[in-house]
Amino acid sequence: MADFTMDADWLVFEPNPTKPHFVLPRGAVDAHCHVFGPGNEFPYAPERKYTPCDAGKDQLFALRDLLGFDKNVIVQATCHGADNSAMLDALVSSGDRARGVATISPEVSDQQLAEMNEAGVRGVRFNYVRRLVDPKPDAYYHRIVERIAPLGWHVVVYFEAADLAERRNFFTSLETTVVVDHMGRPDVTKSVDGAEFAMFLRLMAEHENFWSKVTCPERLSVTGPPDYDDVVPFARRVVEMFPDRVLWGTDWPHPNLKSHMPDDGKLVDFIPRIAPSGELREKLLVENPHRLYWEGTP
Ligand code: 0GY
Question: Where are the domains of the chain?
Answer without folding.
Answer: 29-294
